[in-house]
Amino acid sequence: MGLISTLSKVALGVVIAKSVDHVSRNGMPKLGAGGIGGMLQNLGGGSRADTNARAPHSNNLGGMLGKIGGAGALGGLLGSPTPPATAPAGLNPVFNSAIIGTEIAEPTRDQELAAALMLRAMVQAAMADGTLDEGERAKLMQHMDNATDEEIAFVSGLMDQPVDIAALAADVPDGMEEQIYLLSLMAIDLDSRAEAQYLHDLATALALAKPVVNDIHTQAGVPLLYA
């Protein structure tokens, strides 16, 4: 299925896992063309993060290759161990096509690695107010029927990892800060202090200023984080 398709399926699972109350308050997150995929494209490449204010972090996506499930976990999924160059500007239209179930062109290695990082961000954010119970895990996984055993194991491994904002931020290369924040936001109901604190801490770790964060929330159609 590929990690981009896996990302789209987990994103769909996250939406379903959100309560009816959340949807009634905030509406369904935008998923199709012009939705998350379009936003990922718009937010990529020309990041508004203050990169000089960030803690030491990766300058490419190569560091993801050994993450989750031991050394070589992603290398086994993606084949050749050749490290990637820079983060792609966005996954649109590949992501848009994947999430609405149409066939997608063969993604590049960098796009697959970006999808792996986004999966990690989304799953971690879903655990911002505590660990996932079995019901929540099942909802996240229920649309992955076409995934390979390796892809399922990768996502399951993400769910077994502790929430660690600093470690996540350290793997986010320059240019992907806003994309990672957006996918994290999509996985959160934003109806508890713990979730709001998680987003604040993530934004701080990614050096995203409050006006930038609020702008992402506005684009996503969800309540602002900062007054």
Describe the structure.
The protein is mainly alpha-helical. The protein has one domain (3-220). It contains 12 helices and no strands. Helix 1 (3-17) runs parallel beside helix 6, helix 1 packs across helix 7 (134-141) and helix 3 runs antiparallel to helix 10. It is globular, with a radius of gyration of 16 Å. The N and C termini lie far apart (41 Å).
List keywords for this structure.
globular; 227 residues; mainly alpha
| Tally of individual helices | 12
Structural class: mainly alpha
Low-pLDDT segments: 19-24, 27-33, 80-87
Q: Compute the gyration radius: what is it?
A: 16 Å
Largest sheet: none
Order of helices and strands: HHHHHHHHHHHH
Helix content: 40-55%
Query: Beta-sheet strand percentage?
Result: under 5%
Number of strands: 0
C-alpha end-to-end distance: 41 Å
Calculate the mean pLDDT score and round it.
Answer: 74
Give the secondary structure arrangement, pairings included.
Elements: H1 3-17, H2 20-26, H3 36-43, H4 73-78, H5 94-99, H6 109-126, H7 134-141, H8 149-159, H9 165-170, H10 177-186, H11 193-205, H12 210-220
Helix pairs in contact: 1-6, 1-7, 3-10, 6-10, 10-12
Structure in a nutshell:
The chain has twelve helices and no strands. The protein is an all-alpha fold.
